[in-house]
Design goal:
This protein folds into two domains: 141 residues, TPP-binding domain (Rossmann fold); 82 residues, 2-Layer Sandwich (SIR2/SIRT2 'Small Domain'). A hairpin with a 6-residue loop joins strand 4 and strand 5. By secondary structure, it is α/β, with parallel strands linked by helices. Helix 5 packs parallel to helix 8. A six-stranded parallel β-sheet has the order 3-2-1-7-8-9, sandwiched between helices. A three-stranded antiparallel β-sheet has the order 5-4-6, covered by helices on one side. The protein is globular and about 55 Å long. It is 28% helix and 19% strand. The protein binds adenosine-5-diphosphoribose.
Length: 230
Amino acid sequence: MDRERVVVLTGAGVSAESGLRTFRDGDGLWEEHRVEDVATPEAWERDPELVLRFYDQRRAQVIAAGPNAAHTAIARLETAHEVDVVTQNIDDLHERAGSTRVMHLHGEILLARSTADPRLITPVNGPTLRLGDRCALGSQLRPHIVWFGEAVPLIAEAAALVARADRLIIVGTSLQVYPAAGLVHALPPGRPIHLIDPSDVPLRSASVEHIKQKASIGMPMLASRLLGEA
Ligand code: APR
């Protein structure tokens, strides 16, 4: 079996069965908050304590969660293929499952960054980040998260990975948030796309195979096939 370059684009659905809530499956609220109250630069300006408390809760949930069979199957692909995971998720479940190349488009909940210099990134020590926690320059630390209305610094790098891929696997994303959703179009025409999602997702292309299953079922099935086992 030829070694292929595979990009796996993941969203909240890949972590749903680890107990982490998706964004758009429920009532339009994200863990009882409107997104604009907790995940925008304006929210941070208005009420940084609320924003920090909200992300502290997300961090605690991530620390308590563990990878599921979908994360593990994605990691297993590396035994036979060159795999890059491009995730919209801020959790570290791909890394904990064993994936070695993981790009976090929307940031990482276990990291904080300086409000003075975005290049100053530091681990959050423990489950909380507080007002008064400062970077080396003396400025307040904020969650290392890409908020709504902010640029996605890694998008060009991610598009370059997709443009070189032999195959694209998309797991558990509604493809409603740009620029991440546009990455699909960087794949050269005709290369296979596998979409694993129990719902309909707006993605029309002749080369899409929609595996209409939960990630923990669909991803191990697809991995077995791509590893020549099934
Ligand atoms: N297995 C696979 N897919 C699932 C599962 C599951 N068990 N459960 C739900 N899904 C699917 C849903 O059908 C939906 O298509 O996961 C998708 C989740 O979509 P969203 O909630 O919109 O999450 P996502 O696409 O990751 O959101 C993108 O939006 O709020 C921002 O920055 C945030 O990264 C996030 C971005």
